[in-house]
Amino acid sequence: xxxxxxxxHYITKAEKKNRTKAEVDxxxxxxxxxxxxxxxxxxxxxxxxxxxxxxxxxxxxxxSKITGVICGYRIEEIEDPLMKKVxxxxxxxxxxxxxxxxEKILRK
Length: 108
Known about the structure:
mainly alpha, Helicase, Ruva Protein, domain 3, 2 strands, 58% helix, SP1917_dom_sf, DUF2200 family protein, UCP033199
């Protein structure tokens, strides 16, 4: 599945709850290490999720602090490395849509 096909849904979910595209981008960049420019290049290239995460500069050192249940799965118990990264991102976007502060979402 192409990251670029899901990305607009992340934005829509956030904007429905009065959050912004900039906040979505900040979360993605925090998680993956992409800059805004390199993130846009990945979107424009229509890479799949596997390539998106493989090419990410570096997962944030605080990803282990992302815990809980998303889409019926406990993140800490997901064994597939790619699925775990996708669920990290899903969880962060979900927290944004639920009104958490950026400070809490970014595990500061």
